[in-house]
Amino acid sequence: MPCPRPRPLQRSAEMTTSSIGTPAIPALRLSGIDLHYGFVKALDSVDFEVRPGEVVAVLGDNGAGKSTLLKVMSGAHRPSSGAIEIGGTPTEFSSPKAASDAGVQMVYQDLALVDAADIATNLTLGREPLMKGPLGWLGVLDKRAMRREAARELDALGVTTAPVTRAVEMLSGGQRQVVAIARSAVRVASREHGVLLLDEPTAALGYAQTRQVEDLIRRMAQNGIAVVVVTHNLPLCFQVADRIVVMNRGRKVADVATSETDNDSVVGWITGAKAAQEHLRPVA
């Protein structure tokens, strides 16, 4: 069944353009990225950018290079050649931690949540407040402060989910995905050039749960976060993405505004039945 035409997203024009009408500096830009595995060229001269408040969907068949590209963005893989910029500043990611420190957060398919812990603990993981006084010196966590902070952060993101005291193992698939995305979004929300990377965020989710994730992705973008979504879910792309990038055999074969393409064209680029765009959207 063909995908629905995308609804206009007013926030894209607002968030990706500065107050004087010039395009905003990309939150993340890749230029001429090559990646070799021995004699295999996994990525071939890939240019990519995402701007603050923009959602970019990356599509492609299995082995097309989309997940590899995401790993370069997240610091999990170092490119063989090419350049990476954060907010217009050249940088290198030697590890996922380096990317995280630069404001790039990755949400993996396995979510990396602590199932036995509650929502508050998962949201504040790695930055837990300690009790004041001697108990804090001994490393005792301030559970009440963690819950207050988690509730405040979820409220700021407009996220409605289960009580923050509920264990993650008791949540539905959609709720777990929302918690994982919210945790990463909190860590980039205060960054001027925060980037959120999502790997198949709606895999194995039902319709209602997928809509819950879609709503959260939109809210992240409305808050000025640059969002990159790798997915096989075409309806999701046309529902939330401002722009669609298609990978095929390690090369970028299409880079178009969602409003300027359709389901058949995207499928054609993915399968190779449609020739690469004659004029790819230029990377400024």
Automatic annotation (TrEMBL):
Recorded GO MF terms: ATP binding; ATP hydrolysis activity
Sorted UniProt keywords: ATP-binding, Nucleotide-binding
Top-level taxon of the source organism: Bacteria
Signal peptide positions (record): none
Record bears the keyword Cytoplasm: no
SMART domains according to UniProt: AAA (SM00382)
CDD domains to which the protein is assigned, alphabetical: ABC_Carb_Monos_I
PROSITE patterns assigned to the protein according to its UniProt record, in alphabetical order: ABC_TRANSPORTER_1 (PS00211), ABC_TRANSPORTER_2 (PS50893)
Domain ABC transporter: 28-274
InterPro entries from the UniProt entry: AAA+_ATPase (IPR003593), ABC_carbohydrate_import_ATPase (IPR050107), ABC_transporter-like_ATP-bd (IPR003439), ABC_transporter-like_CS (IPR017871), P-loop_NTPase (IPR027417)
The keyword DNA repair appears for this protein: no
Name of the protein: Sugar ABC transporter ATP-binding protein
